[in-house]
Amino acid sequence: MTHSSIKLSKTDDVIFSENIFDLSLEQQDMITNELSSDTVTSMLERCPQYEKFYSSFGNLREGVSHCPKIPTTTFKLADIKSSDCGVIEKWCLSSGTSGLQSRIPRNRLTLDRLLGSVRSSLQLLREWHEHELKIIHLGPDNESAGDVWFPFVMGLTELLYPTASVMDSSGAIHLSTAIEEINDALATTNLHVGIIGPPFAFLQLCKFAHQNNIVIKGLDRITTVTGGGWKRLSGDMIPQVQFREMICHYLGLNSVSQVRDAFNQVELNTLIIECEHHRKHVPPWLYVQTLSPSDLQPLGDNQLGLLGYIDSSCDSYPGIIISDDIGIVSRGRCDCGRYGVFMEIVRRVERGFQGGCALALDRPRVTEGEIRFV
Amino acid sequence: MFSQSDFEELHSQTTDGRSLACWISRATAKEAKGVIIVASAFGRCMHHNSSIASYLINNGYDVVRYDSINHVGMSYGEMMNFTMGDALLSANHAVDLAKALFPARTLGFFSTSITSRIAFALAAQRDDIDFLITLSGVVNLQKTLARVFGEDYCALQLHDVPHQVIFEGLSVGAKNFYQDMMSGNWLSLESTRDTIMQLKSPMTCFASSDDDWVEISEVKRIFSELDSRSLSLIELEGCGHDLGENPAMARMVMRDMVKRCYEYCGFKGALIREPSYNMLLKTALQERRIQRKTISAEVTKSTIDYSITK
Question: How are strands ordered across the β-sheet holding B61-66?
Fold first, then answer.
């Protein structure tokens, strides 16, 4: 008999392991510190653009909390990738709400890890087998989503579960079809029903049900997951608590714990999802912190600031970023019983401030098509 | 370039008149290096093997996939009547079909989990299977079933066995399954070792070190007892039973599997051509849509029966 073995990297061992959210806080911290530190070292070696950016800061205090992070707006103006990441399988685009679209290069490993992240985050909902769940997607199917990031990520659920996508390629959501699919699944099967989509689509669905006196009795058989934000419809935005209650009412749900939100952005390769107590649990391969908007110095837990990340699941580009979101990071034991790190998005930075943020960095000078660092 | 979403669906009658559904994907004839039969794992259907099929097609192999009869999928019958005997009959029929469609080709058989226990028996019975590749292959069926269901039904008397058990949301008729396993001598580690001893073809076995359902120590034990040069064991470190949950490891296994196929077919060292991510995704989605449409009625019936488990 011949005997050999195949082994994955430390990062993959974590991303593809089971029950990652059941680890103790100490175990999670240890993993996060090790992987994020390795990621920074690796990207300094493999991404000349990041290495230049990093070097331009001169002497830095040690530790991942102080390492320079790339403003996400930079990805709108330059293609940034690791030099030895192999074939780029997909250039992923942001929705372009504010005009320009971010372009993120993803190789196979990065895309595989994204799917691992989706699977892990589903552990915070409930683990359904393929034959136990039907998904109604208030967004486009994979073909219509193209390279636009959030619809693409949402569309990946079709790999796992039977999915009906009710948005056509023109962007129209067929609400009556959605209602039919939901009520049909509830009436003729014992399947659980998952409804996923952007919050504005849920708002339209609820309005449609209200205007047409449609009754849906989801009871404990529907779980909803919103994601992707309000985009250009931010004027319609409803505070989270009211939004959950609205969905609960119109879908006839037993509990608001069945209404969850997920967070992701095109520059981030990890999906972050709420537990039943509406706290977003951060998996340990993702380091998240808040930074002072005025000088980008790291802030402590529970302090409001710009959210910064080191995403160790990114292989083909440096997922070492400062986002345009203001939020809070905390840690400890959640009411759901799991230990870990939690993040809360409070709001987007205002446009004027967004520019200010990039200026505050005063490091990258960006010209169209490439990034230059001085 | 091969079109990976193209397959021909065949419904072929088994010797006892039941319909076996197969998806036939053809490599271009002049380049075909062999034909590989890809058996669906227990509780899985042909579409779950879309990536494996794509890797093989892309590297010059014809591929025959099938769903066992009395199993979830497109073939005759349903899981309530599943037996190992029917699974073996299905595998035999798939080989006969592949031999008829692709005569004179080197023929390999790929199987996963419990279906590998079937594949061991199949390759021990026949001398026209040129090589075997197994993934997470079950070697101690009684122990695996006890871990899957949380209770060792095989240790019970027939009258104590429930009418049905639930596997990943699917109802499986337990009494038929039990009787067939007892009469077919499928259960023990020793029976698997004895079967593998009769293999006439070389075999590569991918086994995961952290598999909750198959103890790798038992796999190593029977392989070391056999001490055959035609057996290769590849240990997947830190991996669990279902590679579908670990696409990074699955990709490495598929590359290695193609390499093994090349070696068995006399193409050692040939370049491995990876299908693109977009192609794999497109194919996977298309095949899922086709098969889910077909099986939705069966699954609906199955899940509604859930309340009468005992």
Answer: A2-7, B231-237, B203-208, B131-135, B107-112, B34-39, B61-66, B19-25, B8-13
B308 domain residue, yes or no = no
Question: What is the Cα–Cα distance from B108 to B72, expressed in whole angstroms?
Answer: 24
Residues B234-290: tens digit of each pLDDT: 999 999 999 988 999 999 999 999 999 999 999 999 999 999 999 999 999 999 998
Chain A positions touching B296 (Cβ under 8 A) are 162
**In angstroms, rounded to a whole number, what is the distance separating the alpha carbons of residues B106 and B255?**
19
Q: Which domain holds residue B93?
A: 8-148+189-293
- Amino acid found at B287: E
**Chain-chain contact of A130 with B168 (C-beta, under 8 angstroms):** yes
Using the Cβ of B72 and the Cβ atoms of chain A, whether some distance falls under 8 Å is answered with yes
Q: Which residues of B touch A15 (CB under 8 A)?
A: 248
Q: Mutual orientation of helices B189-197 and B216-226 as an angle, nearest 10°?
A: 40
| Cβ pair B123, B201 in contact under 8 A | yes
H-helix or E-strand spanning residue A168: none
The whole-model pTM stands at 0.90
**Residues in chain B, overall count:** 310
Mean pLDDT, range A37-55, rounded to an integer: 95
Residues ≥6 apart with Cβ < 8 Å to B104: none
Q: Is residue B42 part of a domain?
A: yes
| A6 touching B (Cβ < 8 Å) | yes
Percent of chain B beyond pLDDT 70? 92
Question: What 3-state DSSP class applies to B159?
Answer: helix
- Label residue A177 left, alpha or beta by phi (over 0 means left) and psi (-120 to 50 means alpha): alpha
Kindly report the average pLDDT of chain B as a whole number. 90
Across the interface, of A89, A119, A189, the residue whose CB is closest to B276 is A89
* More confidently predicted of A359 and A141: A141
CA separation for the pair A158, A176 (Å, rounded): 21
Query: Which among B54, B211, B242, B302 is annotated as catalytic?
Result: B211
A163-167 and A133-140 strand pairing: parallel
Q: Can you point out the beta strands (E) in chain A?
A: 2-7, 70-71, 88-93, 103-107, 133-140, 163-167, 192-197, 222-226, 259-263, 272-274, 280-282, 286-291, 305-311, 320-333, 339-348, 364-367, 370-373
Chain A contact for B221 (CB, 8 A cutoff): no
CA dist., res. A358 & res. A356, Å (int): 5
Q: Are B129 and B95 in contact (CB under 8 A)?
A: yes
Quote the number of domains for chain B.
1
Using only C-alpha atoms, chain A has a radius of gyration, in whole angstroms, of 21
CATH number, domain of B35, equals 3.40.50.1820
Rounded to an integer, the average pLDDT of B45-65 is 95
Domains and CATH numbers, chain A: 12-88+275-374 (2.30.38.10), 125-271 (3.40.50)
Mean pLDDT of A223-239: 79
Nearest to B238 by CA among A10, A171, A137, A23: A10
Question: Are B233 and A131 a contacting pair at CB < 8 A?
Answer: no
Under DSSP, the state recorded for A253 is B
Residues of chain B with C-beta less than 8 angstroms from the C-beta of A2: 229, 231-233
Q: How many angstroms away from the CA of B285 is the closest CA of chain A? A: 6
In a domain, B70, yes or no: yes
In a domain, B140, yes or no: yes
Query: Which residues have C-beta within 8 Å of that of residue B13, sequence separation ≥ 6?
Result: B19, B20
- Residue A288 backbone dihedrals phi, psi, to 5 degrees: -130, 140
Instruction: Annotate B175-191 with b (16+ C-beta within 10 A) or e (fewer).
Output: ebbbebbeeeebbebeb
